[in-house]
What does this fold into?
Amino acid sequence: MSQPLSFQLIDTHAGGDVSRIVIGGIAPLPGASVREQMHYLRDDADGLRRLLLEEPYGIPEMSVDLIVPATDPAAAAGYIIMEVMGYPIYSGSNTLCTATAVLESGIVPKQEGRQRFKLESPAGLVQIEARVENGVVEAITCEGLPSYIDTYRASLQVPGIGEVTYSVAYSGGFYALVDATELGFSLVREEERALADCAHRIVEALQAERGFSHYSLGDVGPLPFLHFMGPVERVADDFYRSRSTTYVHPGVICRSTTGTGTSARLALMHHEGRIKPGDKLETVSLRETRFVGEFTATHQEGHQAVVENTITGKSYVLARSEIVVNCDDPMVECEGLRQVLTQG
It folds into this structure.
């Protein structure tokens, strides 16, 4: 029998989306940046992602965030995001959870009141502001990636659905944005299975028809996300609210509205001239959880009007655990895993 291996986790959730934060037991990864280390995991050592998102340890609806030493001296720590669709370079809910975990684990010492620090994601440095009250992390505000509209109100024939009108935003990944009401949805929890089926059909059709290229990153792979948009309600002069649901291909409806989904909505509202810097949008999920996105500024990148934004939410610690990996277990696939786990 082989010697069992182990590593340490803090399980968290933000808006209902569970992020499993790996805080110890992982060997140093090759790569001069967090982005290069992400590429190593993606291309040569995908076992950690698969272990924690598949039976018997996890389910595809979860995410994984691996804490790594920062390569930028301005950052307190680095992190690599892993989801069912692969390795996104950024995620709002995962950043909220990772920021909470580094505070709760002592990687970044907690300070009462408001404190600011930076994390290094595969997309680059991310400014974090934490609000701590009586030793509890009550809220995290993180920078959303600069977001923009790539395609506005195009149409697509989708098998089993018919003609679908969609827009496409980039906010850390490419998002198809569709009007939930036009597709017959009210965005309530009872519709979750039907939403997943509808989104799967649309994304499959869209991937088959075309690809997308970022203005500076180039080809970042097939479009993996779809965001259902409910009607927008104006709550105050500078505050809006909308029911929202994010789908991750293949097959996952997120519990939260997601940070990148909220950033994509801000980009669309700016494109339509419906918001100004300083305005906020609260997105409300199928489970009534909420994130608040703030449109902070805009700038031009070539032909793209890029929206700068922040996302605010709260993450909760669910568990602290040691995962024991026995490679003799027929339910466990250790290919692509042994090389990243420390021995002993």
